[in-house]
Design a protein that fits this description.
This protein is mainly beta. The protein has a single domain, classed as Exo-inulinase, domain 1 (Jelly Rolls, Sandwich), CATH 2.60.120.560. The chain contains 3 helices and 16 strands. The chain has helices at residues 2-22, 135-138, 190-193; strands at 30-33, 38-42, 46-47, 53-55, 59-64, 68-81, 95-105, 108-117, 121-127, 143-145, 150-151, 162-170, 173-178, 181-187, 200-204, 206-216. Strands 1, 3, 4, 6, 11, 12, 13, 14 and 16 form a 9-stranded antiparallel beta sheet that branches.
Length: 236
């Protein structure tokens, strides 16, 4: 009897391991995200004549307002700096473009930002403010830059350069890719798993044209749109 139970246990563990190998990321297939599926909480996202999306404002914040997994990919062309520039809440001026994951609200989310100027690098941050859910409550508090387990240098962006930036989260594990080459891999911590929110994008003082994709939701989940909350209270 013990031998039989042991055999069933072993088979169960092997089956679970097989499922884990078959679906290592749990992020689903990618689909194109059009302008209608984006909630822009600050700034503006326009459409080009070629049906791409574009950003020409100093600050842009947006998230996908339908059910998606924690995969977001942007194929973009960098066009240089904006005509006017805005400072971050810290007072710094930075040119950057990046991804948002588990974007629960302006106070609790994960960032993977490609900093363009004054220094070219990929920075992953967790913004965490328990009990706070609007910009008025948390401001620019709660940021923690996460040290990667493995990392690689990112290209220096020049106007006209085209690249693909992709982020994938599976539990607390995050992987970031540029042109399918992994540039950041590591854990963002158990606390970030508690954030329940979609993926999105953000830019500061950068002009871009881009195509956006997200991962289909994995598992049983109703296909619905999230109410778009924009304005100063919803922008981070």
């Amino acid at each position: 009897m013990k031998t039989l139970a042991k055999r069933f246990l072993t088979q169960g563990l092997l089956f679970a391991a097989f499922l884990g190998v078959a679906h290592p990321q749990g992020v689903g297939k990618k689909f194109v995200v059009g302008r209608a599926r984006l909630c822009v909480t600050e700034g503006a996202i326009d459409k080009t004549a070629g049906d791409r999306l574009s950003v020409n404002v100093p600050k842009m914040r947006a998230y996908v307002n339908t059910s998606v997994s924690q995969l977001v990919e942007v194929h973009f062309t960098y066009l240089g700096g904006t005509a006017q520039e805005s400072r971050l809440a810290s007072g710094q001026t930075r040119r950057q473009f990046g991804l948002k994951l588990r974007a629960q609200d302006p106070c609790n989310l994960v960032y993977a930002m490609w900093r363009i100027e004054p220094e070219s690098k990929l920075v992953v941050s967790v913004k965490r403010n328990p009990g706070e859910h609007t910009s008025a409550e948390c401001g620019n508090r709660g940021y923690q830059n996460i040290k990667p387990r493995h990392a690689a240098a990112v290209p220096f962006l020049r106007p006209g350069d085209t690249h693909t930036l992709r982020g994938e989260m599976n539990g607390e594990e995050l992987r970031v890719f540029i042109d399918d080459a992994e540039v950041w891999e590591g854990s963002v911590g158990q606390e970030a798993i508690g954030f329940e929110g979609p993926v999105g994008i953000r830019s500061d003082n950068a002009r871009l044209e881009f195509d956006l994709k997200a991962g289909e939701f994995v598992g049983i989940h109703p296909d619905h749109e999230t109410a778009c909350k924009s304005g100063a209270e919803a922008s981070e």
